[in-house]
Amino acid sequence: LLRAILDSPSDPSCVHMLGEILVLEPPAGDQWLDARAFAVAATVASAEQDPAVCRTALALYGGDYLPDDLYRDWASGLREDLRRHYLALLQHLAILYEAEGDRAGAIQTLQQVLAADPAREPAARSLMRLHAAAGQRTEAIRVFRRLAGVLASELAVQPEAETHALY
User: Fold this and answer.
1) pLDDT tens-digit series, residues 70-121
2) How far is residue 124's CA from residue 133's CA, in Å, rounded to a whole number?
3) pLDDT digits (tens, 9 = 90+) for 34-45
4) Which is nearest to 94 in space by CA: 58, 141, 142?
5) What does pTM read for this prediction?
6) E-strand stretches of the chain
7) In Å, how far are 11, 24, 31, 79 from 70, measured between CA atoms?
8) In the predicted model, what is the mean pLDDT of the chain?
9) Measured by CB atoms within 10 angstroms of the end CB, which terminus of the chain is less buried, N or C?
């Protein structure tokens, strides 16, 4: 019964017997269960032009993969890949919202990106542009200053010329 629930027909079984012990072992290098579902959904949603598909995929993201095992080499690559998918999908959703004329949705989504990665300059630029277009110049400047502070303190770099020009 456990194999029927956990295994897919195309993959090798992740349920094995080791003597009298039942072992749950995901296939090596595979993105497993919820991580796999999110990665697949994110890949599909990134190619779509439908915000609902993006929101459905984003709902599958449960946060950083194995956050209690930050120093496990086997998990760190997958953790970073899933996080990249998550952030890219959020930015894609913001673009879709803006294309639909949903400025508030785009702003909220870009704020989520920057909450997860304050140094993500393309998201900050998009957020600055949206605030400026809405006549919220002070908020646009605030986004720039937060970005510049994070870039200086964490990466010892300045914002790109394109970001300075927008500022």
Assistant:
1) 666 777 888 889 999 999 999 999 999 999 999 999 999 999 999 999 999 9
2) 14
3) 788 898 899 999
4) 58
5) 0.78
6) 15-18, 21-24
7) 27, 21, 17, 9
8) 87
9) N
Exposure class string for 6-33: b at 16+ Cβ within 10 A, else e = eeeeeeeebeeeeeeeeeeeeeeeebbe
Q: What percent of the chain has pLDDT over 90?
A: 65
Neighbours of 103 (CB within 10 A): 14
Residue found under tokens 């749950």: 24
Q: Per this entry, what is the length of the chain?
A: 167
* CA dihedral of 110, 115, 117, 118, whole degrees rounded to 10: 90
- Which of helix, strand or coil describes residue 8? coil
Residue 14 in tokens: 């992740």
